[in-house]
Amino acid sequence: MAEYIFEIGVEELPTTEVENILVQLNEKISKLLGDEGLSYGELKVFYAPRRFGFYIKDLDEKQGDKIVQKRGPSVNIAYDENKQPTRALEGFLKSNGASLEDVVIKDNYVYIEKKVEGKSSDVILKENIPSIISKLSFRKPMRWGNGTYSFVRIPHWILSLYNGKVLDFEIFDLKADNKTFGHRFVKDEPIEISGIDDYFKKLKDTNVIALHDERKKVVEGILSNYSVLKDEELIDEVVTLCEHPQVVEGSFSKEYLKLPEELITTTIKHHQRSFTVYEGEKITNKFLSFIDSPTGNIEIIKKGYEKVVNARLEDARYYYEKDLKIPLEKFNESLKDIIFQKDLGTLMDKVERIEKISEKLCDDLSIGYSDKVRILRIAHLCKADIASNVVYEFPELQGTMGRIYALKDGEDYKVAIGIEEHYKDVPESLTGAIVAIADRIDTIVGNFLVGNIPTGSKDPFGLRKKTDTIFEIIVKYNLNIDLENLSKFTASLFSKDIPNELVEFFETRYELFNQNTRYDIARAVKRFWKKPLYGRLVAESLINIVDQEEFQHLLTGFERVHNISSKFDSYEFDSTKFLDDAEKELFNKYIEQKPKILEAIDNLNIDIALKYLIELRPFIDNYFDNVFVMTKQDDIRMNRLAFLKNLDKLFLKLGDLNLIEKK
Q1: What single DSSP character describes residue 13?
Q2: How much is the pLDDT for 515?
């Protein structure tokens, strides 16, 4: 078995590119090995601030040999009447470097079989690694020199070792070698490497922890000695920025503890990528910073951090106190001068639309008077803090500062909480949830109306996520919302109609939203995107009954009803024209069951509706066993098809059941 390690040394990696690099490398290398039929024990991708790469352990040293078969001319063309090879066969053999001994006759054709010896894995890696690395894609690649090359950052060295020996190739005019470099502040001279284990050991000796998951454990281990909020985003950022993380304990002036806690923690995180320390649930004036300077003077570094943190907190206090001089509602006036999106007006225009959509939702859902008043107040103030000085400086505090300022102004507690919550994926209060839906539907519909439609992986305005959030909120709060009606109302605020692309978009997102039930059931209920709660209830009921024998029989019956009536477009029938007992019996049972099913649906009792639907099954079976629908008598045939069309329509109220897989 073989081992291989690759590393490319670069200038400091942007934190925004790291995850992308890891995913691409893992996918491309594992695909290469799979496509080439090479098995391996472990594939590990890693990165540090100035390098990234991968290693493979227990790798096959070569591919298995293959028997390659190639078809030639038919036997009649390959041999003459005396069974001698023709020029056609001789030409085929010559062009493939084969002889008559290689010929095999199968299915009246001539084949040649040749043994192809497998390539060694070092040759395969040498042929493919340069292309894989040079073709990695990045959000913002860098060009250098005369612009010939493009990469995440300028490369400086390449390490490539197969079983301890250099696997030589070139990438970006850099030749692969057996050398790497340690921490830039410890040893800036090349270090010779003999293999995977030697690589990680020698780098640690020069203060580089090359494996990012090991660095993360170091950071988490240090933080476990303190009471801090576990901020995964900040931890990952520290791991990306430090080859050998070391902690610096600092403190800021206690006078800043009078500021809102969120403003303190955000200031310290935003400007210094540092963690705030707590005692129990109470914030302290201590903070933790991580540095990547093993040879630096910790005391001097600490004083530098403290100076910056205090200065930033003083700025935050200035902005905060300046904001407090103005009531939150007054900030709304400034929203008239802030563009929401091109072609979608100002933020004040958006607020006014959110208010109207929220009011419609309150009326449609029969929200009580007191909650409606709160919801409309939330809608009115939901974007006000965007015009504040603090949010201008710290956009991530949008909503949070709205809550803080609202409480300072004496607003209703639920109003203040709703202002913050309407930004969350799933708000904890109904009042916040209603405004959250209004805000998102305005953005979704507005963008579709101006042509900002998600395509492929591009969704710059996050419309997919916003749609999924609407579905989640509706289901969590059991809101019987008609999303199509709401979309049309929203479009009317722009004086337009909803485009067909929006309907298709909602339907697709709704099918994906229900994928956690079962994919065929998700397809069966995607038609209910207009009523997301109803569709989810149908999906949940179907998943409970789908494998039962009676329901499986019903699916077969429905399929016959649906297929025969699908292209017929009339619902007008005359029951007095039914001739056979079987169709009269099905009609009578249909008349009996239909009001029960519809009542159960109106009350969202889907289990009951399905139970009543199943009771139609034996009558449907009997109908198709005894009634010939497509009779030559036009009036009888049309009448039967119209009746079946009505039966099909009743079934479809519980989903496109023909899309559910039958056993």
Answers
A1: P
A2: 87
